[in-house]
């Protein structure tokens, strides 16, 4: 297991290690795309990405030096890094949402949510297999970072392309497995096992909005120096609703009262905290695209697994309007004009030529 992929802030990460970095210091800023989790509300994110890609005129992965994605955002991050057109990724949610969140049947219908996850993983696995096939992280030509929780050891873990010499195992993992791991939302989908490495739970438990992880990766794994203008982060949310308690409910809750509400609270609280702190740290170098749902629309998109014509209409229309707004905003100009440098990889089929004999 690669301990370099564990949670930031552990002793190994006390100082940036420029000597092993895949990026050298330069005047060119390092751009991070951070995609939040949110279940079927990832359709909002995918819609924004589709319009951005169409307007910028090139695969979005070529515009960013690192793509981070959690849960539904992780599926999109993997798709972008594989240069699957964002329009097709939007279709993965819009057309295949009913397959991913398939109606429970048989014993699963009887036992969920008490003894079984609500949904079988078969639908999600089938959709991801159709999109990614047998491709692995090592097959990608763009850097990615995908948060998960390794439940076998009780800590966060990050699947990454081999953009540092120490990332010597992850490149062998199939994109399907990485996607299943980051999207294994508690109570919604079963835990996902990857070989002998362990079982994994949804990355939203450790960081639903992964922009901070991207900033950390730039400084500590890739050697990008600190300082204003050196790292820029573009984050796209999922119309995340602040999980709140109703005024007429009690205070003494048990497992039946909390249910899936607990997971929703975790991801919404993280989303708000990360957004606030990245704004403080990066100032104008941090741009976030997200929208609150109106009271009427919130009924259509409140649940992470609510797939309906009304939800599709709200998520696609609000995503389109969000893209229209940001494309007219000068804050997007630095991202609009950026082309990522070719990444350096240390392992796998896309190993950079100068590293092939290392």
Describe the fold and architecture:
The active site is at residues 71, 202. One of its GO terms (molecular function) is hydrolase activity. It comes from Thauera aminoaromatica. A motif (GXGXXG) lies at residues 37-42. Residues 33-215 form the PNPLA domain. This protein has 358 residues and is α/β, with parallel strands linked by helices. It has a single domain (30-104, 115-242, 258-356), classed as Cytosolic phospholipase A2 catalytic domain. It has 14 helices and eight strands. The protein has helices spanning 42-56, 72-81, 86-94, 97-100, 106-111, 122-132, 175-182, 204-207, 211-221, 255-258, 261-282, 295-301, 309-327, 333-336; strands spanning 30-35, 66-69, 144-150, 155-160, 192-194, 198-201, 231-236, 286-289. Strands 1, 2, 3, 4, 5, 6, 7 and 8 form an eight-stranded mixed β-sheet that branches. The longest helix is centred in the last third of the chain and has 22 residues, at 261-282. The model is unreliable at 1-5 and 7-20 (pLDDT under 50).
Within the CATH hierarchy, at the fold level, what is the topology? Answer: Cytosolic phospholipase A2 catalytic domain
Query: How helical, in percent, are the residues?
Result: 25-40%
Distance between the termini: 21 Å
Strand content: 5-15%
**What number of structural domains do the residues give?**
1
Rg from Cα: 19 Å
H/I helix tally = 14
């Amino acid at each position: 297991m690669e301990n370099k992929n564990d949670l930031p802030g552990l002793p190994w990460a006390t100082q940036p290690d420029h000597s092993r970095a895949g990026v050298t210091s330069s005047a060119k800023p390092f751009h991070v795309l951070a995609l939040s989790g949110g279940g079927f509300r990832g359709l909002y994110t995918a819609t924004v990405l589709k319009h951005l890609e169409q307007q910028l005129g090139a695969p979005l992965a070529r515009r960013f030096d690192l793509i981070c994605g959690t849960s539904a955002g992780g599926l999109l991050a993997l798709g972008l890094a594989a240069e699957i057109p964002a329009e097709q990724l939007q279709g993965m949610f819009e057309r295949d949402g009913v397959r991913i969140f398939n109606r429970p049947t048989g014993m699963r219908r009887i036992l969920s949510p008490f003894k079984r996850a609500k949904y079988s993983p078969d639908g999600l696995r089938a959709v991801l297999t159709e999109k990614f096939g047998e491709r692995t992280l090592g097959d990608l030509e763009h850097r990615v970072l995908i948060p998960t929780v390794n439940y076998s050891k009780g800590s966060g873990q990050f699947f990454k392309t081999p953009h540092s010499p120490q990332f010597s195992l992850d490149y062998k993992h199939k994109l399907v497995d990485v996607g299943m791991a980051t999207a294994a939302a508690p109570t919604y989908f079963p835990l996902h096992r990857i070989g002998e490495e362990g079982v994994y739970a949804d990355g939203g438990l450790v960081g639903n909005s992964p922009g901070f992880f991207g900033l950390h990766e730039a400084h500590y794994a890739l050697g990008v120096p600190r300082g204003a203008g050196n790292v820029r982060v573009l984050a796209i949310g999922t119309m995340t609703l602040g999980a709140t308690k109703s005024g007429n409910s009690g205070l003494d809750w048990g497992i039946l009262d909390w249910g899936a509400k607990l997971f929703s609270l975790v991801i919404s609280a993280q989303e708000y905290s990360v957004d606030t702190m990245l704004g403080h740290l990066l100032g104008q170098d941090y741009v976030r695209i997200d929208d609150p749902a109106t009271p009427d629309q919130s009924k259509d998109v409140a649940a992470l697994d609510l797939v309906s014509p009304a939800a599709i209409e709200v998520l696609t229309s609000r995503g389109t309007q969000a893209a229209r707004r940001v494309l007219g905003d000068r804050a997007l100009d630095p991202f609009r004009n950026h082309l990522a440098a070719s990444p350096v990889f240390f392992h796998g089929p896309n190993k950079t030529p100068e590293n092939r004999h290392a």
